[in-house]
Amino acid sequence: MRTSIRNGLKLAVVFGLAMLTSARAGQDGIRVLFDFEEDSDIAAISQGSQNAAFDLSQDDGVTSGKRCCRMTFKKGGDFSEVHFNGDKRQGWSDYDYFAMDVNNLGEDRTDLTLELWDALTKGYPTRCGLEAHVVPGKQTILIPINRAKRNGKEGRGWDELEPKDKIDMRNLRVCKFQFKTPKDHDLVWRVDNIRLLKEDALGLKMKVKLPEGAQAFNFGAAPDMEGFPVLRAAAVFDGAKGFTSKNDLKDCGKRWPDPLAGTGVYSPSGRPYTFEAAMADGDYRVWLIAGPVIRTDIQNPKYLLKVGDTVVFEDQPSTAALYGEKYIYRFMKTIYSQRPNALWQDFIDKMYPVHQVAVKVTGGRLTVEACNFELCAMVVLPAAQKSAFEDMARTLEQERVRVFTASLPPFNPKMPARMAGDGDSVAFIPAELTSVSPQTGPTPAERQTKSYDLAAAAGQNLIFRVAITAFADAGTVTVVPSALGGAGAVPASATRVLFEDFRLRGVDAVESALLATNAVPLERGVTRCFWLWMTVPKDARPGAYAGSLAVSAGTTTTTFPIKLKVYPFTLEDNMPYSFGMWYAMHKPADGSQTRRVIKEQLEFMREIGFTGVEVPGPDMNGHTDTFLIDLAKEVGMGRNPGQMSMTSALGIGRTLGRNRMGLGAQIDRRPGCEFDRPEFHGLFLNSAKTFAAFLKQCGLPLAVQSVDEPREIPNPWNRNLEQTDTYADWLHEAGVQNVYVTPMGDNNSGKDYTALVDHHDIISTHAGKASTKLMTLTPQKGKTLWLYNTGMDRLSWGFYNWRVGSTGRWEWHFCWGEGGPDNGYLNEEWYNPFTGLDGAAPQAPYATQRGGMLYKSRFLTAADGITDGAYLVTLENRLAKGNANPETVRKARAFLDNVKQAIPFLPDVAGLEGANSGALVGEGIKAPATALCETWRCQIGDLLTELK
Length: 948
Description:
Blueprint: H1 2-6, E1 13-15, H2 17-20, E2 30-34, H3 39-46, E3 53-57, E4 68-73, E5 79-84, E6 97-104, E7 110-117, E8 128-134, E9 137-144, E10 174-180, E11 187-197, E12 215-219, E13 230-231, E14 241-245, E15 250-252, E16 264-266, E17 273-278, E18 282-292, E19 303-307, E20 310-315, H4 319-322, H5 342-351, E21 354-361, E22 365-371, E23 373-382, H6 386-406, E24 425-428, H7 444-448, E25 452-456, E26 461-470, E27 476-481, E28 484-486, E29 489-490, E30 495-505, E31 508-515, E32 519-521, E33 527-535, E34 543-553, E35 556-566, E36 578-581, H8 594-608, H9 627-635, E37 645-648, H10 650-660, H11 666-669, H12 680-697, E38 702-705, H13 721-733, E39 739-741, E40 747-748, E41 751-752, H14 756-759, E42 762-765, H15 772-780, E43 784-788, H16 794-797, H17 799-803, E44 808-811, H18 858-881, H19 886-902, H20 933-947
Helix pairs in contact: 8-9, 10-12, 18-20, 19-20
């Protein structure tokens, strides 16, 4: 499943324009490809380029010299390509980055791919695609090219690759950047200073004149900086300065977020170490950047930072405390903000804190003791120079903030539109199709929606939202649902209030998690959104209920009336559907509460409607750990044979090859080589038979994956078509049932992958025209169709899934922390926009958070879709029973036919628009039909009421 999520990650880094505009021809470490000062540049860049027109200009795009290039990409032209030919594609191996300055005067946000081909490139798997964004405004696009590997080798680290897996940068055959152009308008960019850079050419230098008498130190592989001598981890005390207790010290950092904090020295093992500097006895003031090293691979850490005799920080946290809000999850409740320098104040200043310490030096040495701290930079000044010290501290911070700010992608959020009478804020009910971000203001129609009109069956989940846009800093917003009364009582506690928090990641503000709070600060120009999750009591009487939702901001309270109709029927709660997500257990580090935490995660899955979970596959002997299987049964998964959980059998083959057959690392370097050995069939069959016997008696329906996302150029966890079909045949030979596979489309590297249908019981594929044959052939041949990685949207989990005859919906991944920049930051922290730890259900303190997790709103949209599916199944079951009014039956069948006609079979045809022949994870199917889901559900509710 890794392909589907990794394809959605942006591998490039985008810097603000100020970061790199100083790059000029002739500077060390910079090679300018095009500066657009000569007419010849237009002729050169035009060669081979497609759907692109170029002309020289002297407008606002100039960043070097007097002219830039105006690039025009025509609408409806599918893809635009800009090629680098001749000497422009030679010599790239000597550089680390590709860069160009872009001024985008439009409002488009464009995904751009830099493609590199060498002599071994034959198709998509063997070329290299590096991605970046172009956003509105001025920016520098910066793409790392020094680790260019073939697309088919995604998931492998650079050191794990064979030489043939890496692009030969010395002999590039094709260099181009390309992107998809809009259908309805041209794109026009001003582009200048297209260049290649070495690592050393990147940094902005800080200019700080230290006070007279100051002693300064910059630790690690630091850049040259006047007044700050570099001390690397290998610097042993030489009588003047150095480390006196080394304990496996190591340099760290990549000069980000600034030249002082961006490099450092630390102990990877978490052992204490000491730095000493010769200094005359006396009183001093010390300015020190030193941040805690928060890592899960350091067991039972002790934290100490001591300057002279002053203990700056000391702690020895318990495991629960380490995995709590003081350490790994310290940014969990940091609310998204757009105030000036918010990223610095809320994150960087805590990631790389400055300590100002008064110390007394005796014995001629200043000593800094550290344990699980990274030393970055230090300045020491005699205490008598208090005013100079304070001025220096302010200047250093100003310079650090300036450099950090210049490193950020361009992000200029627009103020939501304000209308007469709005006051300091306006609360509104978002429409079904509105994706609320911090910059989303209410539409005129949303402003006119003044109440909620809800309908549900007893025991059902109901999901709805409220948002508020602030036009001034308006204190705190509080959202309070009331109890509902009428035919019975629905207590206020039946409605959970969840605040949707965001983080700025790259050029986008993206959802961080839903926080269980009903009160957050309001900020000018920012919209806050709350999700309401109501679980109607199972014993709620049919009839009408009423209550309200109060949204208070400052002295203003907006009350939204709530009407709820409870239907006189219950929904089918044992649907023959397999719903779930790939899953890696988030276990407490000390193992003391593993069962409780994992069970709570599975209970959450059941609450939103999941019926299965991914469980570990068998070992090479065919034996399976039953821990997760037993918990899945305990929480109510697998009650129906169609409610299959998932597992994989490829691990048998990989482990047999690695260990029993002596292939070792070859099994991953040359995936499929196990089939070269004649003894492999017998070994695999014996293990698979043991596994088949286990499946028959384990009590949990399991679908068994032959191979994950088969492809002709496989990664270690894939195999090609022939090998995948062979694995499936052998599993069947061993007596394994419900063998499934996850093809990404009908073809791969020119091969027809529909042959998989003949060898598997279940075909699980992306929804889109790239899977047209698979989606039609699977049911035609009497096999089971599932959809995977189509998104977490309501439509695809409910009405669309039903429409195409799929009985399974699976997504990657429940909580797989990945993504984010490689910026040199040491710490493993969740909820930090500058780390890669993020997921659909991000980890959280296991001691205080149910399941040791939070979750994102995509679970609630999927839950809405699953509820839609329950309405459909309930209606179809009722129709199958007969004994109902014939006119109502006719009306119900006509309704179902009309719904099917309203939803096209494939999302890439008119009416449904998918991303990349389906959708990126979490993105879902975007379609007008989504707005009809609630209407259709209510119509089914009325039909069931008549049929009762």
